[in-house]
Please model this.
Amino acid sequence: MELISDREFSELVQFIKRYYGINLAQKRTLVIGRLHNYILQSGFGSFADYWQHVIADRSGDAGTVLVNKLTTNHTYFLREPKHFEFLQQEILPYLAEKEAGAKDLRIWSAGCSTGEEPYTVAMAVDSYFGAEKWRWDTKILATDISVHALEKAQNATYANHQLECMSREWRTRYFRKLDEATSMVADKIRNEVIFRRFNLMNQTFPFKKKFHLIFCRNVMIYFDAETKKELINRFYDHMESGGYLLIGHSESINRNESHYKFIMPAVYRKG
Model:
C-alpha cells in the first residue's frame, strides 16, 4: 500500500481535530501503524481510496471506525491510586454531608475507555457508604467516543491478573470468578454504571442536572491548549458548587484560564 501523502495526512489531522478534538499533527507514524493493516484487510488499494471512503460516508460509521482505530484505550483498575484515596477520605465524606438531604450524587467518568475507572469509582462509593448505600442514588455516567471500548466496558469481563492491584476483600465482594483466567464485575456494581457514547467536542452537553464529581483523566493530553481550555470551562459550567474535577497526573489546568481551584496534583474544585 502506498504511503499517506502530506495532503491526505493534513486532511485526516484536520478531520480528527474538528470532530473529536484530538490533535494528531505529530503522530504520523502512529496513524500509519494503526491504519495500514486495517486498510489492506478491508480491500482498499491505497490510503487515498480509504480516505475517500471515510469522507464520503454520510452515515458517520466510517469516521467512528477511524477514530476507534486511532485512539488509545489504555487503562486499569485503581489507576493513579491517590485519587481513590482522596475520593474515600475527602470527597465522599464532604459530598455525603453536603447532599445528606437529597442523597443524590451525580458522577461522570468522561473518557471511560474499557470501564475500569467507572467500576472502580462505583466500588469506592459502595465501600464508603456500606450499609447506608441503598439510601443513596449514586449512578455513574460513563462516556467514551470509542464504540469498541464501550462494548468491552459493558461486557464487564476482565483477566484475573488485572484485579491483582485490588485488595482481596474487593476482589471477593465486587467480582464473580468465571474461570481460571477471567472474572466479571458483580451485578451490584455493574448496575451502578450507565455507559453512553458521547463526544466531548459537542458544543452543548445534554445534561439536565449538574455533576458533583467529574473524572476526565488522561484524555486531554490529546487536545491542544484551546480545545482543553474550552472543555474545562464546559465541565465547570456543568458542575455543582463545591464539586471536584479529577484529571490525569500528566495534565494540569492553567489557573488563568479557569475558575477551578487547585487542591492537589490533578485534583481541582469549583468554589
About this structure: Strands lie at 107-110, 140-144, 157-159, 175-177, 182-185, 193-197, 211-216, 239-247, 261-264, 267-269. Residues 81-98 form the longest helix (18 residues).
